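The following block was generated as part of the benchmark described in Methods. Ligand: flavin-adenine dinucleotide.
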Amino acid sequence: MEIQQDIDLAPYNSFGISQQAAYFADVRQVADLQQALAFAQQQQLPMQVLGAGSNTLFTRDFPGLIVQMNCKGIERLPGTDSVKAACGENWHDLVKYCLNNNLYGIENLALIPGTVGAAPIQNIGAYGVELAQLFLQLEAWDSRSGELHCMTKSACQFGYRDSLFKQAAGQHLIVLSLTLQLSQEYVPRIDYHGLKQAFGGAEPGPRQVFDKVCEIRRGKLPDPGILGNAGSFFKNPVIAVSQYQALQQQYPDLPAYDTEEAASVKLPAAWLLEQIGAKGRRRGGAAVHAEHALVLVNTGSASGEDILLLAQELSDAVLQTFGISLQTEVRIV
Ligand SMILES: Cc1cc2nc3c(=O)[nH]c(=O)nc-3n(C[C@H](O)[C@H](O)[C@H](O)COP(=O)(O)OP(=O)(O)OC[C@H]3O[C@@H](n4cnc5c(N)ncnc54)[C@H](O)[C@@H]3O)c2cc1C
């Protein structure tokens, strides 16, 4: 593998932000990863792992090595309903592979951009299903010890858009493959609002759920190929029920969803942002999408800093108005 120099990162992030990486490695196999890690160590370079860049905002030139994980391969494990996929596979292709092999449970996660290797990092989720519900195990390369680890679900410490890999204790782990536990028996999961309504009381099959999720997503979210974005910029905040009740006094319409813990609720960040008049707000070439307060877009000429400053402006306003601190879902580099 050749380590490339002075690479424009615009094609490698869904915001389409143009920043330079001093070095770039296109990793196709473990040997490439070992070579890249050795190079970064010898040259004492900072390193950043990248999948398809659909959850990453580059705010300045990167003086180190970008390691893009492009290992390929998808297989159904013989005699099981489990599917193992390499980190560089496209997530949506994996969803299609499962469906085409009559393996179910994953259809609600159709059309989430990005790679298989990034899916466990923030425990991707949509339409009432999270990766953790399908997760069997993953293989990760330990960039400190040079060892391969096989990690169980509990070891990954999945939470809402969270995992061990986002914590300091897990950032040296590079996902090589992911194994999912699917089922030949189909159980529709359409309780999530929007989906249930779409079927009007009928019980859909897996292909119908897949198609409907794709249709809703295509109609709702801007295509990053046309308008640079990374989906939801902020996480939905989880707050104590007591804080929610106090806020309700002032904002009787404030929506909330149950969480796994009875003492807390999840608020839609989009609602909070709408109340502060976020939609359509701009900063340089960055803007809040006119229809989705949670989606920040590159109107064509945004720098990463424009997007970051706009995000800070929004989270400051939410903090001032509601006393709630928004956390970014997007990885800021
Ligand atoms: C239009 C749009 C809609 C979206 N909708 C959703 C949604 O519904 N639900 C949802 O959860 N997300 C959503 N996202 C976010 C995004 O799709 C996911 O976070 C996805 O998993 C990112 O994959 P990626 O390969 O592009 O990750 P990248 O942006 O390349 O990387 C994201 C993070 O993962 C790390 N990483 C990547 N690969 C590896 C690896 N092999 N090993 C270790 N670390 C790694 C990176 O270092 C970085 O910290 C959306 C994004 C867009 C653009």
